[in-house]
Amino acid sequence: MKFPRPIRILLVEDSRDHAVFFRVALGKAFKHDHEIDTACSLAESFERMDEKHYDLVVLDLGLPESQGMETIETFFRVRGPSNPVIVLTANSGEDIGEDAIRVGAIDFLTKGEFGADQLARAVRYGLERWRQRMELEEAQRNLKSFAHVAAHDLKSPVKSISLYSGLLKEMMQARSADEEEIEYLGFVEAFAEQAEKLVDSLLHFSVLGEKAIALDEVDVEALARQAVSNLTAKVGEDGALVEVAELPKARADEGLLIHVLQNLIGNAIKYHGENPPHVKVEGVVRGGEVQFSVSDNGRGIDPKYFARIFEPFKRLTGVNDQEGVGLGLAICQRVIDAHHGRIWVESELGSGSTFHFTLPLAEGHEQELEPVGFERVESFR
SUPFAM superfamilies, per this entry (predicted)? Predict the structure, then answer.
């Protein structure tokens, strides 16, 4: 990676001896011109970063005001992911380095276990990985922007096709036109409606991730009941029974979470088997997170398709199934990923499916370790 100027590095280290070693070791092996500023605390590092742009931050995880993962979590909370960070840790036998990378660092070094060459290599590779990450994010932004513009431009003509095909169908019915012609026009109307759903889903998918995720304490049970209420027509049409248990509270973005619940419950009703749909929404606290589940008695899913169903535009239904555009579960996964949670499915063909997803537990509910039952079940038909 070539720079047209000296590389600016901020070393956040409270030990003078370690700071001296870092300067000497990097100067010995790192051949590119560079400047190193030091800060003895997080507060001082934030002040320096307000005054100057740095190409790389090397962050000691043991500082006067914080230790371990608290240090890097505080750093990213205050500064955001706008700088590449290599962490220094004194704990070689622990997984703190890998944990720091999962939080957002690009590399880690263990104090006392690296020399000049290893330090220089970490800096070079760290800067290169950061460049690649920035290029990938820029490409993703451009792709999302293109998808958004294309979907937005398609929305108007698709709505017009739907509108005028409906009007034309009414005119043909009024003059007793040939039934086959009316049937064909009905196909056009149905396909236009399907295209409109696709455009709306593309718009939603393209902007998801652009909005900030606001994590607040959320009454998930109330949201689940609202999602069922939104599906009242579908519940009545299919004769569905939906049971919502008492659910633990979680930290989530309320507007995004109701989309996930409505999609999972709606799918559980839509893809039912011969018997009327029976859907259960449950939740259990596991450590610092809540695991929610939406189970049904429907058709079930072949395990070989478990990963595929979360991919955009992947549908396992037959060609005669007009509903859905294959983006619902992909959007659900993107929402849960944005909450740093997980989403997965357990199912067998003919035996129903259970979709699980996790969210951060709301503060003050850490002792609720048992599954929450159906003591106050509300049924919807």
Answer: ATPase domain of HSP90 chaperone/DNA topoisomerase II/histidine kinase, CheY-like
